[in-house]
């Protein structure tokens, strides 16, 4: 039998196994894993690893926020993702207060269709909760949008009170959806911000100084309590603080199904980045903020010991300068509280995590695959279609060169943003070829796909 494509002679790494075999691809799916397969096309993977495509379950593309709109849309964001080895994203559609969830979802479908170069799915951000909205949640879950992000921060924009969060949690107990929570105590943070502004503090570092670790740990603890009372699992997004992670660890030790993701920025960057000269600290203004040095090793340890289960990006790119008429971080030049929150990272997640995790001796290759692909696929209803190298799965695959060196820079990255938070850092290990459903979307660090080839993926309920 001749396959459409065979990936030959590589070492296949999944979350569970490491095996030397060929991968045979037919009609976009993995049809065989065996020795000596023949293909019409052959991709040589000798001395390379064959990994499942990365799954980034936290991105914000074409998102209006804090007076700006993210620099990356679905075309540039997914192009950059493909080059970095990510073949599926789950982006956040937003419901505007008072409007139907479906309306927000339709808007996000419009942003992605014809532009996305890799497969995509959506979570839905809820900005109000009432009887009507709860019914709408059921409909979304039936249509494959099976997770909802709720905010305990950003009063007046996204923040919901505990009763609303609890009601939404109870509803997911019935409909099989998943609640994702942004855990920071928005009320306390608001008081700290107002006080800092009145005292005349303007610089970017005040963003971090007004969002303490305990505001994240407290909200995480409260979120766990609410989910426990509702009797549902809960997913904490972009966990940054070691103290918040310990809340998750303790909940899991009590047998509760609580999980959390962290992001590369919290593993590689620190509060010191806010103290860079001039307005440069604005590049790192995101929420939760970067934490003091030493915190990152606690998170690495959490990934190793399963207190944390996923690494996603929270890719939310704003340019420093006004570009193509789009305002960016400069909005907060004279007031830290007006700097649009978010940073880019969709392209660099896998390379950074391999370098710091696998090369750094902190994660095994299998654990690396687990946190960037398999567990996110399982938690968000994409498995077994995505997340592993297995017969029947979509042929979303990376031929990974463990020796390739890449120096990260805004001059060479594919993201449409005028800075890179990791500028000048050299990493070892990068994708050589990336396939989406059997077709190349990246080769040798260059985009090889087509915007519009990415498909919307209906996700399953949590199992
Ligand atoms: O600073 C961040 N994280 N911006 C994106 C919005 C969010 O809370 O995820
Ligand atoms: Zn958030
Ligand atoms: Zn986010």
Please characterize this protein's 3D structure.
The protein has 463 residues and is of the alpha/beta class. The protein has a domain at 53-371: TIM Barrel. It is 30% helix and 24% strand. The chain contains 12 helices and 21 strands. The chain has an 8-stranded parallel beta sheet with strand order 8-11-12-13-14-15-16-17. α3 (131-142) runs parallel beside α4. Bound molecules: N-(aminocarbonyl)-beta-alanine (URP) and zinc ion (2 copies). N-(aminocarbonyl)-beta-alanine binds next to loops.
Ordered list of secondary-structure elements with their pairings:
Elements: E1 2-8, E2 11-13, E3 18-20, E4 22-26, E5 29-34, E6 38-44, E7 49-52, E8 54-59, E9 64-65, E10 68-69, H1 74-83, E11 86-94, H2 101-112, E12 119-125, H3 131-142, E13 147-151, H4 162-175, E14 178-182, H5 186-198, H6 205-209, H7 213-230, E15 234-236, H8 242-253, E16 258-262, H9 264-268, H10 295-304, E17 310-311, H11 349-359, H12 365-379, E18 397-407, E19 426-436, E20 439-443, E21 446-447
Parallel strand pairs: 1-6, 2-7, 8-11, 11-12, 12-13, 13-14, 14-15, 15-16, 16-17
Antiparallel strand pairs: 1-4, 2-3, 4-5, 7-18, 9-10, 18-19, 19-20, 20-21
Helix pairs in contact: 3-4, 4-7, 7-8
Bound molecules: N-(aminocarbonyl)-beta-alanine and zinc ion (2 copies).
């Amino acid at each position: 039998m001749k396959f459409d494509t065979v990936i030959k002679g590589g070492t296949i790494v999944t979350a569970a196994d490491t095996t030397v075999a060929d991968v045979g691809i037919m009609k976009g799916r993995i049809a065989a894993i065996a020795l000596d397969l023949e293909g019409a096309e052959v991709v040589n993977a000798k001395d390379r690893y064959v990994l499942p495509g990365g799954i980034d379950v936290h991105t914000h593309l074409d998102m209006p926020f804090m007076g700006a709109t993210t620099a990356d849309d679905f075309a540039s964001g997914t192009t950059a993702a493909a080059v970095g080895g990510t073949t599926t994203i789950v982006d956040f559609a937003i419901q505007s207060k008072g409007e139907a969830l479906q309306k927000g979802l339709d808007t996000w479908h419009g942003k992605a269709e014809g532009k996305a170069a890799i497969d995509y799915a959506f979570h839905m951000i809820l900005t109000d909760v009432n009887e009507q909205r709860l019914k709408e949640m059921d409909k979304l879950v039936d249509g494959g949008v099976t997770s909802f992000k709720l905010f305990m921060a950003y009063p007046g924009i996204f923040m919901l009170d505990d009763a609303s969060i609890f009601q939404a949690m109870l509803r997911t107990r019935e409909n099989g959806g998943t609640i994702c929570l942004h855990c920071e105590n928005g009320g306390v943070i608001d008081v700290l911000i107002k006080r800092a502004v009145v005292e005349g503090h303007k610089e970017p570092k005040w963003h971090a100084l007004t969002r303490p670790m305990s505001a994240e740990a407290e909200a995480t603890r409260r979120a766990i309590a609410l989910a426990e009372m509702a009797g549902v699992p809960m997913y904490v997004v972009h966990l940054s603080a070691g103290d918040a992670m310990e809340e998750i660890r303790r909940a899991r030790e009590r047998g509760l199904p609580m999980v959390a993701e962290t992001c590369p920025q919290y593993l590689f960057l620190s509060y010191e980045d806010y103290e860079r000269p001039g307005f440069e600290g604005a590049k790192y203004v995101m929420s939760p903020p970067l934490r003091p040095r030493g915190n990152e090793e606690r998170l690495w340890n959490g990934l190793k010991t399963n207190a944390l289960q996923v690494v996603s990006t929270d890719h939310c790119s704003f340019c420093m300068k006004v570009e193509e008429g789009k305002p960016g971080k400069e909005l907060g030049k004279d007031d830290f509280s007006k700097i649009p929150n978010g940073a880019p990272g969709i392209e660099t997640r896998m390379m950074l995590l391999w370098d710091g995790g696998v090369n750094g001796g902190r994660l095994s290759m299998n654990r690396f695959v687990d946190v960037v692909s398999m567990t996110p696929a399982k938690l968000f209803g994409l498995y077994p279609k995505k997340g592993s190298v297995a017969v029947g799965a979509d042929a979303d695959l990376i031929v990974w060169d463990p020796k390739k060196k890449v120096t990260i820079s805004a001059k060479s990255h594919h993201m449409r943003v005028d800075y890179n938070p990791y500028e000048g850092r050299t990493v070892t290990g990068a994708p050589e070829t990336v396939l989406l459903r059997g077709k190349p979307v990246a080769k040798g660090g260059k985009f090889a796909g087509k915007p519009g080839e990415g498909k919307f993926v209906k996700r399953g309920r949590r199992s």
